[in-house]
Amino acid sequence: MSPTLDKLRRAFAGLAPRVLDAELRIQSSSSVARVSALLVESEDAHGSEYVSSRDMRRTFVSGFDGSAGTALITHDHAYLWTDGRYFLQAEHQLSKDWTLMRQGQKDVPTVEEWVEANLHAGDALAIDPLLTSVATARRLVTSASKSNASVVCCEWGANVVDQVWADAQPARIEAYAASVPKDTASILVDPAQCNVAVFSAIPPALRKEAPSIVLRHKAIKNPVEIQGMKDAHIRDGAAQVRFFHWLQEAVTSGQVVTEVSADKKQQQFRRQMADDEATCGRVTTDQMYLNDSGAQYLDGTTDVTRTVHLGQPTAHEVHCFTHVLKAHIALATAVFPNECEGVKLDAITRAPLWKVGLDYRHGTGHGVGAFLNVHEKGVSAYGKFCTFETITLIPIQRKLIDVTELTAHEIAWVDTYHADVRAKLSPLLEGGALAYLERETRPLVQ
């Protein structure tokens, strides 16, 4: 049994019964018989997706360091929820003390469904009000109340994980709280962004709940940001072509290339985060290699994915890749009305995969910042009807495409895209990288 989990269980069992009610007011209550579980989320007090080392509480308690996941610890079990991008990583990193909850899979409950089914009258789930959003807290309170259970909050600044982490935790950045000015008319609160502690500190009469106006301003790029993003993708595309050319030559010549050594080589072309080489996989000629990466340039942010095979792909791999490409083209060429809901575009994208019994275990897309967050919330576009402009400029590997499974429209799209890639990247390349670009961007049908 994990010593860390044992310490956490003793710590949350002793929490005072500061119950969160339906209005998200924190008050003492005698209805709590025992604190039965502790929720450990990934975000910091600002709701950040990527947090500083001192805020990596979920990683500390579970060992899983993927960017998305939620841990829930009871007196007898420990659970980790994450999505399909991280199933393999979580299986590798979680110890036998943990149960992996594969989000979106059949018979796997959400956190809220688990709370409703497993907490009973007198039980309580502990959260940190500084780290749990208003929207999440409301869902948890609703789920717990269905079985006469409760949600309780630790004291402000007394996070349970921090108590166990103690001296080993990275240095704290001091936080300061300001009082609400007396002449304030109202304070805009986004339930999805604001944490419970801040929400409860604002007088109810002053709260005005609405989506954050900041999100829309960030999502709608100005002309300078748009041009910067396009320019950044041209430079990034050239860097990626150099990288994939090197990778093809290195692996096929027999060099030992691991995921991390490939990443380190890629950093010569653009900066990218590192990983633990001791546990990484090896890049070989007998399997697919997926490169999901990006870079922060002064004029734009890139987030691109390409999958290649450095040997001879199987018929099944080609079949799957080709239908993912068909899905990509379906979205890239979609024409949709303003205010179209994202779920409708999601269905348009997945349709070519569904036709052959395939699917993917993650969302279809996300907004990208302008020298800001890699992941941003998208917003509805202006105009009566809208379409997408493709700005990622990296070849789509030809050997993975079964032309017989593409329509004439899809073949034309690939050829047009590759012609654009070749025209914009050729001036930035030379030698083997240029030859690689020209080879991979030839028309599909000669």
Automatic annotation (TrEMBL):
Keyword Metal-binding: yes
GO terms for cellular component: cytoplasm
Record keyword Cell membrane present: no
InterPro entries on file: Creatin/AminoP/Spt16_N, Creatinase/aminopeptidase-like, Creatinase_N, Pept_M24, Peptidase_M24_C, X-Pro_aminopeptidase_P
Domain Creatinase N-terminal: 36-145
Alphabetized UniProt keyword annotations: Hydrolase, Metal-binding
Residue ranges of every copy of the Peptidase M24 C-terminal domain listed in the record: 384-444
SUPFAM superfamilies cross-referenced by the UniProt entry: Creatinase/aminopeptidase, Creatinase/prolidase N-terminal domain
Domain of life: Eukaryota
Classification via Gene3D superfamilies: Creatinase/methionine aminopeptidase superfamily, Creatinase/prolidase N-terminal domain
One of the record's GO molecular function terms: metal ion binding
Residue ranges constituting the Peptidase M24 domain according to the UniProt record: 228-381
Sequence similarity: Belongs to the peptidase M24B family.
Protein's UniProt name: Peptidase M24 domain-containing protein
Lineage: Eukaryota, Sar, Stramenopiles, Oomycota, Saprolegniomycetes
